[in-house]
Amino acid sequence: MDALQALRQACIQGRVPTLTPEDTTVVLGDRGSPWPLDTKTSWRSASHELYTLHSLILLLQYADKPIGDYLRTAIAWKVKFVSNIDRRELLAYLKRERDTTDAMHIDKSDIS
């Protein structure tokens, strides 16, 4: 299971992790061993970059809060924020409101 699938499964199970600025790893679901937060996921941004696990978890953590709070936190924590273009589709995918998307990066050879 890749990082995006593990995060989606955690979301579906209602087990979205809460991060602090000091965190460098996260345990998702029943995996047991931690994922480095800088792990690239298979979600490609509108600018064709792969989002990291850190970016996606921070988005989930701030999904129901004002966008300004999310952006300020992402900047303060030096985490790339998810663009408004990607935000809605990504949240729908992670919350299982949709199962497919063109933003998924199929060739996983460059995912660390």
UniProtKB/TrEMBL annotation:
Residues 2-109 form the Paf1 complex subunit Cdc73 N-terminal domain. InterPro entries: Cdc73/Parafibromin, Cdc73_N. It holds the Pfam family CDC73_N. One of its GO terms (cellular component) is Cdc73/Paf1 complex. GO terms for molecular function: RNA polymerase II complex binding. One of its GO terms (biological process) is positive regulation of transcription elongation by RNA polymerase II. This is Hyperparathyroidism. It comes from Tribonema minus.
